[in-house]
Write a structure and sequence with these properties.
By secondary structure, the chain is of the alpha/beta class. The chain folds into 2 domains: 4-126 and 303-324, Rossmann fold, CATH 3.40.50.720; 129-298 and 332-349, 2-Layer Sandwich (Dihydrodipicolinate Reductase, domain 2). Helices cover 33% and strands 23% of the residues. It has helices spanning 13-24, 42-49, 59-63, 80-89, 104-117, 131-142, 170-173, 177-193, 302-315, 325-344; strands at residues 4-9, 30-36, 54-56, 70-73, 93-96, 121-123, 148-154, 197-205, 217-224, 229-235, 246-251, 254-259, 268-273, 292-295, 348-349. The protein has a 9-stranded mixed sheet with strand order 14-13-12-11-7-10-9-8-15. It starts with a strand and ends with a strand.
Length: 350
């Protein structure tokens, strides 16, 4: 099978932990051929770990490698635009981590450049590749839970102050728990509901527990175009062991309830279909719901699916179907509207 030859810009962090070992290395249509990192000795360590010959200290050197056909950019958000533009001008296809950039202006410029160059590009919102999230989308689309009226997503973790951590520096990451985690859920719910977010209201607070300048606490209220409302809670100050990472979708005739699917893998989900003809119950009895169905995902890996999807688009000259740069621009607009709401205390249109 033909394989796309990949290079990695920013070989530490998420690249080394997840995207290389679970994505590029496991993808049936991808091959890791080069890695790059500015930290002295790190690229060499990663190259040795994954049995890659080419290790570089500069973006320019990696992009000059004729073996590299596509690049994965996993560097701080404030460097994305420059590195993305360098990659596009070098004729490379690109998978860039989220967020696309720290400003909507930069993100829009990146999308325009990629479109003009005719290369295949995607953004790293991998959660849409979870099979249970795809199943949730199918259930919602089928109408079996009626009209969606409310969704809730939780993605929190324990993230204490760490020296040099760019996600804790507003100049590098553009924010804290909201830009880092809430945007995943914005993106996911828009996909599952097949409806864009049109209004947001948010509360963001820094220093509640973690003493760094970006927010460690963020809650967002959402309104979707289809009338559904949503709640997204994302915190850097909740212990991992105590966070269930729940996803809840409530409709007029049923619900979808999941634990552990939001995040980097795993989880389970149940769908409750009550029927559209249910009448008013003044007693509001609670109990075991008819139509209960538990759904388990089976074997999967979101990072592998993400890499395979873009590699397939490259190899077969297909249109990138998910995580397009246009999607990324829109998610960044939602995040910026949420930050504006937090500052003004007002509901903000996207």
């Amino acid at each position: 099978m033909a394989k796309v030859k990949w290079g990695v810009i920013g070989a530490g962090g998420i690249a080394r932990r997840r995207t290389i070992p679970e994505g590029i290395a496991k993808a049936k249509n991808a091959q890791l051929v080069a890695v790059m990192d500015v930290v002295e000795g790190l690229a060499e360590q990663v190259a040795e770990q994954f049995k890659v010959k080419a290790a570089y200290r500069t973006v320019e050197d990696l992009l000059a490698d004729p073996n590299v056909e596509a690049v994965y950019i996993a560097t701080p958000a404030n460097t994305h635009r420059k590195q993305f533009e360098q990659a596009i001008k070098a004729g490379k296809h690109v998978l860039v981590e989220k967020p696309l950039a720290n400003t909507v202006k930069d993100a829009e410029a990146m999308a325009r450049l990629a479109a003009a160059a005719g290369v295949k590009c995607a953004e790293g919102y991998m959660m849409k590749f979870h099979p249970l999230h795809e199943k949730a989308r199918e259930i919602v689309k089928s109408g079996s839970i009626g009209k969606p009226v409310c969704v809730r997503g939780q993605l929190s973790c324990w993230y204490p102050p760490i020296k040099g951590a760019w996600r804790q520096d507003p100049a590098q990451g553009g924010g804290g728990s909201l830009i880092d985690m809430a945007t995943h859920i914005y993106d996911l719910f828009q996909y599952i509901l097949d409806s864009p977010i049109v209004e947001v209201m948010a509360m963001c607070d820094s220093g509640v527990v973690q003493k760094f300048p970006v927010e460690d606490s963020a809650t967002t209220l959402l309104r979707f175009k289809n009338g559904c409302q949503g709640i997204v809670d994302t915190f850097f100050n909740i212990r991992d062991e105590g966070c269930n990472r729940v996803m809840e979708i409530y409709g007029s005739a049923g619900s979808i309830l999941a634990e552990g699917t939001i995040g980097q893998g795993g989880g389970c989900m149940k769908a409750i279909q009550l029927g559209k003809g249910a009448g008013y119950d003044a007693a509001q009895k609670r109990g075991a719901a008819p139509g209960f169905k538990e759904i388990k995902p089976g074997a999967f890996n979101m990072y592998k699916s993400e890499v395979e999807a873009l590699s397939d688009a490259i190899l077969n000259n297909k249109k990138v179907a998910m995580n397009t740069l246009a999607d990324g621009v829109q998610i960044l607009k939602i995040a910026q509207a949420a930050y504006k709401s937090s500052k003004t205390g007002k509901l903000v249109k996207v």
